[in-house]
Amino acid sequence: MKITRWFLFAILLGALLSACGTASQAVATPLGESMKGYELYSWRDGNQWKFSILVGTNREKSIEEIKSAEVVLSGVDALQSKLEEIPAGQYITWSSKETLSLPSEDIIKQIEQTCNDQGLILSIAS
Predict the structure, then answer these.
(1) How many other β-carbons are positioned within 10 Å of the β-carbon of residue 110?
(2) Where in the chain are the domains?
(3) Structure pTM?
(4) Cross-strand partners of 42
(5) Per-residue pLDDT tens for 87-126?
(6) Measuring CA to CA, how many Å separate 19 from each of 7, 88, 122?
(7) Distance (Å, whole) CA 51 – CA 102
(8) What's the CA gap between 79 and 114, in Å, rounded?
(9) Chain segment 24-63, per-residue pLDDT in tens
């Protein structure tokens, strides 16, 4: 009987200790499909262009949401990498408002080409 208790205690202790292990980091996954597409914003910060891509919704995004550190992409290369994570066929609406602006025609053409290559449908609304 004592052996059975010790055996059950050992199993319980092992189960408790294994539950206390460190959590693994979530692996970054590509962006999924969005019923409302995605919203792209851009602005100049010093000598660098910054961008953010947010899931499309029916409501207008605040400047704080758009420029939130969690979503800001610094530079064209970072934007192109993020666009490559979006599934083909998704709509991307590029807007500017208040303190936001569109970059030079050369940068716009680069982004248009990336969207074309990825099968994304880009609409620029200024």
Answers:
(1) 16
(2) 38-125
(3) 0.73
(4) 51
(5) 999 999 999 888 899 999 999 999 999 999 999 999 998 6
(6) 19, 40, 47
(7) 10
(8) 10
(9) 333 334 577 778 899 999 999 999 999 999 999 989 999 9
Amino acid code (one letter) for 35: M
Cβ of 94: how many Cβ atoms within 10 Å?
22
Residue 14: its pLDDT value, please? Answer: 60
pLDDT at 12: 59
Q: What is the DSSP string of 13-40?
A: HHHHHHHTSPPPPPPP------TT-EEE
Structure tokens at 42: 């851009």
CA distance 69 to 73: 9
Helix axes 76-83, 105-118, angle to 10 degrees: 20
Give the CA distances from residue 25 to residues 15, 28, 29, 72, 109, in Å, rounded to whole numbers and listed in that order.
22, 9, 12, 21, 36
